[in-house]
Amino acid sequence: MKQSRLFEKTRREAPAEGEAENARLLTRAGFIHKELAGVYTFLPLGLKVLRKIEHIIRQEMGALGAEEMRLTVLQDRGVWEKTGRWSDQAVDNWFKTKVRGGGEAGLGFTHEEPLTRLMTGHIRSWRDLPVFVYQIQTKFRNEERARSGLLRGREFLMKDLYSFCRSREEHEEFYGKVKQSYLRIFDKAGLSGKVAVTLASGGSFSKHSHEFQVPAEAGEDTIHVCEKCGTGVNDEIKSETAVCPECGGGSFKKRKAIEVGNIFSLGTRFSEALGLSFDDESGRAKSAVMGSYGIGVSRLMGTVAELFYDQKGVIWPPALAPFDVHLLEVGGGAETRRRAEEIYKELLAHDLEVLHDDREARAGEKFADADLIGVPWRVIVGEKSGQEGELEVERRGEKSSMMPLSKFVRAAKSGQSHV
Amino acid sequence: MKQSRLFEKTRREAPAEGEAENARLLTRAGFIHKELAGVYTFLPLGLKVLRKIEHIIRQEMGALGAEEMRLTVLQDRGVWEKTGRWSDQAVDNWFKTKVRGGGEAGLGFTHEEPLTRLMTGHIRSWRDLPVFVYQIQTKFRNEERARSGLLRGREFLMKDLYSFCRSREEHEEFYGKVKQSYLRIFDKAGLSGKVAVTLASGGSFSKHSHEFQVPAEAGEDTIHVCEKCGTGVNDEIKSETAVCPECGGGSFKKRKAIEVGNIFSLGTRFSEALGLSFDDESGRAKSAVMGSYGIGVSRLMGTVAELFYDQKGVIWPPALAPFDVHLLEVGGGAETRRRAEEIYKELLAHDLEVLHDDREARAGEKFADADLIGVPWRVIVGEKSGQEGELEVERRGEKSSMMPLSKFVRAAKSGQSHV
């Protein structure tokens, strides 16, 4: 893509103090725009990052045998009253709205209720189970405070997966698979080695749940990480967990952390309340055993920005970068232009996604913008860029070197994730 | 995909009377599920259709040079007050909701206001223009009545494109291109020859706009179609338009119709109210000339269902069908299973999307379900399905015939649209 055709501009000046680092970085780089506290527009570059995350998630959901669907934002009060989650006392961050012609609707912050009700029309026998379905959808939470940029949105993008099983054993097996799947997703998204699986409170559903926590100063959660094996325990259950649930170690380090995913065993709480039962092999009616599994898609984008940046801007992991290569044409002149255009086409032909800075601007401005945008590889084409077939190549944050095109293509392709 | 893995079931019984035909058909076939009046969940099969429509639209938006982004659902009251569109008197179908910590937000029914404000941070000079951006996003309209299934939703999926130009001439040129682009989109979606371009009221923005109307009894609009050239005039401006604006013909036929798209010239109504100006080549400040262009994505799905069905179910145009081929394994037996599995793999290897009915069910049930689901091509594998290399092939609604695999692959691929 030609940078001259991108409408969004980077900003030299940082947004107001008090904004979270991820929001400051991504706003300056032209990835997001704040509409309201906790409500962000995704500009073309930001949408590209979201779609790369979605792509990684869809691959893994497919591998789990989960089907994708799309539930609704507007929520029917009736079904939430049946599970006791409609009132503002039970759930304090509903957005609610009046419906013309009478009644009120909520804006979905999760989807156990409507999905469980829907399944009563599709699940009747043990032969219909297990069922695994997910969606990637905008969710709404009426947060009291929303000062953490993409880390705590009032409107945010989430992947939520739900499982319906015949028995606790079948559920536990799937739950274990999701745990592994989530670790693969975070690895692929560039968070390899950064995510701690923690034991957390199961809320009103079960004794415990698991969370995927990324230690970071910007995090709103507190976790205790086992110094022996890296497993974590959430602060709210630390008092009841003297030793590490994984290795039995007794030494923990207290850390602030960002929750990027969670997995819940729901038991039969929703299937009983909403009448989702099936006939087992001997013809007896049983309630389906449920689980729910979330990943904050937009929060993951914010988390990556919080982890990988320097004073010049974000440094994207290759799999999430909006482009594989930033091609900087510097110095002007017809020959430079011809050469840049030729390299642009060659890189595209090798199936690389290239942002070509073809603007009439000073070299310093181009480099500063490239630093802000944070594409991991950079190719510089100027008057003194060496002979044909050789490229001046730079990794974001490192020194430039000369490299044959074929070698560069292999290096740049190794981390890419095409949508 | 294996049909035994699809959780959604077809329904023999039709939903309650009073539902629109598209909702009845798509509910029975397991494509959608009604949450509230005018609010539908998209089950996996329905989501596949939506994504095929999105894919066709994205191709054409790319060809127009438009960038994709994603604006927000929650709307800042302040920016809508500036253009006079916040009050319920000015816009009678807002959904509004209280924000914790104070204030109210709206749920976006269109996005001129936030986008225009956003552009004030990115457009300064004539060099920054023109800008074309679009999104595919869930929109909300608090309709008094919502009884037309996907044709008039309270929550629905829309593609909205916006243009920002330097002059009326530049705007007119783009407006003309979008008109052609929209006709290509509807052609690709299977509505070739079914769409009338009509002259409509321009509302408060300009004298006229254009709409893309599909004559159908289920339509909520009334249009007058020129009997000579097929151009239309909307009912609300018919009294001021005695002759056809295209060919001068004077004979019209009155029809009910479904509006599947519209294009508006907005002039400087929004750019003036929100201060979106740029310096022209001589340094003078000018307001950007805007246009907006909508296509109802979920409505298009409903429209196609209203147009193409028989008493047995929907008949999808190949480009929108959830699968290219429905492979029906009938009669059971190990040899039939082996043969079906082999054909399934061969068709997949030829890059066809195949739904393989591998369920243990009677042949009659499989055929009835296939009729409801409406995949355009069907391959039947039974005990007497002819020799290796030959397929028993049926077009939805036609008689079956024997065909070599290679010939069938060519036929089935001709209309497909991969996502």
Query: How helical, in percent, are the residues of chain A?
Result: 25-40%
Describe the global form of chain A.
elongated
Chain pair with largest interface? A-B, 57 and 57 residues
CATH topology of the largest domain in chain A: BirA Bifunctional Protein, domain 2
Task: Tell me the count of domains of chain A.
Answer: 2
**Cα Rg of chain A:** 24 Å
Classified by CATH, the class of the largest domain in chain A is: Alpha Beta
Number of helices of chain A: 10
| pLDDT < 50 runs, ≥5 residues of chain A | none
CATH architecture of the largest domain in chain A: 2-Layer Sandwich
Strand content of chain A: 25-35%
Strands of the widest sheet of chain A, in order across it, are 9-10-13-11-12
Assign the CATH superfamily of the largest domain in chain A: Bira Bifunctional Protein, Domain 2
Largest sheet of chain A: 5 strands, mixed, barrel
Q: What's the total count of β strands of chain A? A: 23
Mean of residue pLDDT values of chain A: 94
| C-alpha end-to-end distance of chain A | 15 Å
What does this structure look like?
- The structure is a homodimer of 419-residue chains.
- Chain A has 419 residues and is an alpha+beta fold.
- Chain A has two domains: 3-310, 2-Layer Sandwich (BirA Bifunctional Protein, domain 2), CATH 3.30.930; 323-413, Rossmann fold (3-Layer(aba) Sandwich), CATH 3.40.50.800.
- In chain A, 28% of the residues lie in helices and 29% in strands.
- Chain A contains ten helices and 23 strands.
- Chain A has helices at 21-28, 44-63, 77-82, 112-119, 168-191, 269-273, 297-307, 334-349, 363-373, 405-413, and strands at 32-36, 39-42, 67-68, 74-76, 96-98, 104-107, 131-140, 155-165, 196-201, 208-215, 221-226, 232-234, 252-267, 277-279, 285-287, 289-296, 309-310, 313-314, 325-329, 354-357, 377-381, 390-395, 401-404.
- In chain A, the strands form six sheets. A five-stranded mixed beta barrel of chain A has the order 9-10-13-11-12. A five-stranded mixed beta sheet of chain A has the order 20-19-21-22-23, sandwiched between helices. A three-stranded antiparallel beta sheet of chain A has the order 4-6-5.
- In chain A, a hairpin with a 5-residue loop joins strand 11 (221-226) and strand 12.
- In chain A, helix 1 packs across helix 7 (297-307), helix 2 packs antiparallel against helix 5 and helix 2 (44-63) packs across helix 7 (297-307).
- The longest helix of chain A has 24 residues, at 168-191.
- The two termini of chain A are 15 Å apart.
- The mean pLDDT of chain A is 94.
- At the A-B interface, strand 1, strand 2, helix 2, strand 3 and strand 4 of A face strand 1, strand 2, helix 2, strand 3 and strand 4 of B.
